[in-house]
Amino acid sequence: MTPQRSIQLRVNGRTYERTVEVRLTLADFVREELHLTGTHVGCEHGICGACTILFNGEAVRSCLLLAVQADGADLMTVEGLAQGEALHPLQQAFHEHHALQCGFCTPGFLMTACAFLQETSNPTEAQVREAISGNICRCTGYAPIVQAILLASRGG
Amino acid sequence: MKPAPFEYVAPMEIAEALDVLARHGDAAKILAGGQSLMPLMNMRLARPRVLVDINRLAELAYISLGTDGALAVGALTRQRAVERASLVRTHNPLLASVMPYLGHVQIRNRGTIGGSVVHADPAAELPALCVALEAAFVLRSAARQRTVKAADFFLTYLTTAIEPDEMLVGIRFPAWNPQWRWGFQEVCRRQGDFALVGAVALLQMDEDAICQAARLAMFGVGGAPVRPQRAEELLSGQRLDGRVLDQVANAVAAELEPDADMHASAEYRQEVGGVVARRALEAALGQARGRGDR
After folding, report:
1. What is the pTM of this model?
2. Given B42, B110, B190, which is nearest A133 (Cβ)?
3. Which of A127, B59, B221, B248 could bond to B258 as cystine, CB 3.0-4.6 Å?
């Protein structure tokens, strides 16, 4: 058994306290300890973007962080987007524009787009394409994803 | 669990981190942004016995301007912070403009300027930029502090002049020459990916369009960034017309000794090295024409 640490953090507005192995990645922690399985784990070395979450408001790859590093942090995962039954405008736009096929990459795209729109309120298509360049969709459905993000940026 | 077991230390003071390095040397690894080290650990290509997480050393995250105009950037400063800092845009516009190329936004949010430099990936932009800007690296160990010039820092693939008991604490960029015009060009498969080949060009042109000073730094062309000396000499004192640029592109290609890997052959890198160098110079010249003598 490797060393363990106790951590306390906020995820989607809720406070959690857990004792974790220091080598547990944040992505695995969120999925396996908190059972928030919306965050998907693809490549596990920072290439695919599927595990993107917000770490103190910034989009990061959760597979490249250790859970212990999130001690005291405020996280948001894809589960934090919808307000009850009401979808987040990005989720609604993805739904309406068929911006997902198999859906595996979708949580990463949503969280990347969420952080992006918070800092860029009226983006161009080129800006959207650059913003999502760190996320891979193996179904290659990029065109509707770009359209959905543009639509959401204009308030749906 | 993806990474192999390790002992985890998260010091609150630099001295504590240096003490761990002094005791464990090679067996210890520093974790900063983790954008290079964590992939290696997840794939178990790196198996440090002790992981020194320096993310709580807030004193290593800063951007400041010296009285001499030099820009000092703390090793733990996030790449995104450098990109957004008005101090950097004003006092080293080249550094600010190249930051978005370092990686995707999720990487830059977390990745640090020091981490990119010490990882020393030969395809990375920042090491070549530091060589072009003649930056200096401040290294500290429990016993001493020393400064190493960028030209002496990058030894070969993933290898720098840092000793096992040392830590990079900051980077100093000499005062920006307001007459510099610059170009940055790279060839890569996807926005934000590592480059196959890239070039940084700095030119100082006088009012008669004669080149007064020139620097070129190439990356993705071997184990470390390269300043093609002969090509730089060809630029100096010249009016940079198409004929001179052709000669320079040929000289760059002739000076490079790239290796082949799964992404590109050596011949390709050599040929494209000349092309991107020429494009970077053309971009710098375009800036010189577009902005007059400002």
Report:
1. 0.94
2. B190
3. B221
